[in-house]
Each structure stands twice: as C-alpha cells, then as structure tokens.
Specification:
alpha/beta, Rossmann fold, seven-stranded parallel β-sheet, three-stranded mixed β-sheet, 11 helices, about 15% strand, globular, NAD-dependent epimerase/dehydratase family protein, NAD(P)-bd_dom_sf
Length: about 325
C-alpha cells in the first residue's frame, strides 16, 4: 500500500485511519466535502480532495494514482432524519465510489459497514455467516447500510477486490456518540440513564483502524469481518466506571416515563424539524433491538489483537 484514498477522512473513524496510515508512511488522499470541518486532521500531512461522495468526476480525480481505498463516509443518525439524503450518501455514494474505484483499477478497497446489517438478532450471538432474519428495518440508517452492503458484495462477486469490516459500537475519548455521555458521567452531571439492560458491542476506534489496515493487507476478496472486542450492558459499563472513579452510577429512568417523554419530543421534533435526543426510533434501539456478535474471525484470520472492553472504557478516565 503506497497511496490510499480515505472517504469521510474528517470523521471520527476516518481521521483516526488517516493518522494511522500517515504514520505508516502511506500517502493519503483525504476525500472530504468542501464544507467539512477539518479540525480532526489539523497538522496532518495529506493531499486534500474535495467533493460529495456521489460526485463521480471528483472521485475520478481523487483516485488518480491510488492503489487502496478505505470507504468510511456515511450519514449516521437515528430518529427524525433526512431519509432521502441518507440514501444518497450511504447507498448511491457507495455505488458511485465502487464504479469509480473499479474504473481506476485499485488493488483493494475496504468498506466500513456495521453489525447493523445483520438486523435484530434477538439476543442471539452471531458471526459472519448469519443470514438476516428481521423483516423490514429498524431505521433509515439500518436500511441504507444494508443496501450499500449488498452493492459491495455484488461487486466482490464480480471480481472487484473489496472486503468489508462490520464494527460494533465504536468508542474512543473523542468519539461523538458514546463519548459525550461518558464525559457527562465523569463530570458528575449524568444523573439518569435508560435501558441499563441494553447490551452494547464495543471496539476502540484505533483497533477498528488496525483491523481495516490488516484487511487491506491480508483479506481475500469478498470477506466479511465483525470487529468487536466484546460487549457489556449499559449498567455494567457505568458500574465499571464508577468503581474506577468513585462517581455513583446514574439512576435508571423508569421506562413508562421515558416512553411518554419520547412521544412528546417526537411530536415536537416533527413539528419544528428537530431531531430530539430521544424518540420512538431510539427507544426501539434501547429497549427492543438486540444485536450480539462474535468477533473471533478477525482475531484468527487477521491476527487482530484489540484492547479489552475494560481497557477501552477506562481510557476515558483523565
């Protein structure tokens, strides 16, 4: 790998990947939108390429001389979202990138997917051979990532050298999803939480990046790798952090109250074009949907050696 294109290079996973590649001496083309916030990559020596993920001409220019592509760009959100935009980014953007990468003759592409493509496993621990059983989709994000994965798999069947990694919950001190909650807890400002029984798969962002690079170097065309260091119920995550810090665990909000509040916020969100922090879709993910995975294939096939779940969480501590 000499020259790599990273889509979504300014994002959480993308920025960590760019830094890791640059640290290995790889020339990186960072593909971002012209309006993107580039603070995560301040001071990192990359070649910038600007364009939307569905802009074929911009992608063709960015791919000149590139031998490896890492596709991390995605519209990630639950709740009241712009479903049409999500389709354009996650599905049509992936379709356009696949076509451009094939035309450019790249030697390998790694697609950052999600364990969500397997649907609700109803608590069953599954591996890469699992066939989705859920009828329908839990969210627009769930649907668009599943459809994008179908495009990637179709390209692989046609001989294009693309492999997929399916991360579980991606953690790290600068992560925009789980991080703010944990930082609130550490500041003693998180008094209530919900869904203590909800099981979350966990992987450190830098371990995900390592898995992606290993997949680029070692994985045969068409392979899938679940990337997860393990899992914990939310209640146990806070208990572990509480033991390390002495900060009391947050109280669990009563589910009936949460349901009422979520219903009210959902109505307000639709009236004022606002995505509330809690709504019906998020409640489904917290209380009903349960995706559990086995990440042992990546450990064995790629010699991937991630941090433990405990190490990932304790890294948040000052």
């Amino acid at each position: 790998m000499k020259r790599a294109l990273v889509t979504g290079a300014n994002g959480f996973t993308g920025s960590h990947l760019v830094k890791a590649l640059v640290g290995r001496g790889v020339e990186v083309v960072a593909y971002v939108r012209a309006s993107s916030n580039l603070e995560r990559l301040a001071g990192v020596e990359v070649e910038w390429a600007y364009g939307d993920i569905g802009d074929r001409q911009a992608l063709d220019r960015a791919l000149e001389g590139v031998d490896t592509v890492f596709h991390t760009a995605a519209y990630v959100e639950l709740g009241i979202v712009d479903a049409a935009k999500m389709e354009r980014v996650n599905v049509e953007g992936t379709r356009t990138l696949l076509a451009a990468a094939q035309a450019a003759g790249v030697s390998k592409m790694v697609y950052c997917s999600t364990i969500g493509i397997y649907g609700d496993t109803r608590g069953q621990i599954i591996n890469e051979t699992f066939q989705r059983q859920q009828q329908g989709f839990s969210s627009a994000y769930d649907r668009t990532k599943y459809l994008a994965q179908q495009l990637v798999d179709q390209a692989a069947r046609q001989g294009f050298p693309v492999v997929s990694v399916m991360p579980s919950g991606i953690f790290g001190p600068d992560d925009p999803h789980f991080g703010p909650v944990i930082h609130l807890f550490l500041k003693k400002r998180l008094k209530f939480w919900l869904g203590g029984d909800r099981i979350t798969g966990i992987v450190h962002v830098d371990d995900l990046v390592t898995a992606m690079i290993l997949a680029a170097e070692k994985a045969p065309t068409g392979e899938h790798y679940i990337i997860s260091a393990g899992e914990l119920p939310s209640r146990e995550m806070f208990r572990l952090l509480s033991q390390a810090t002495g900060i009391p665990t947050p109280h669990e909000a009563p589910k009936p109250l949460v349901v009422v509040v979520a219903s009210i916020l959902e109505v307000l969100g639709r009236l004022f074009n606002w995505n509330p922090p809690i709504g019906q879709e998020r409640l489904h993910y917290v209380y009903e949907r349960c995706v559990r995975v086995d990440g042992s294939k990546a450990r064995k096939a790629l010699n991937w050696q991630p941090r433990t779940v405990e190490e990932v969480l304790l890294e948040f501590l000052p």
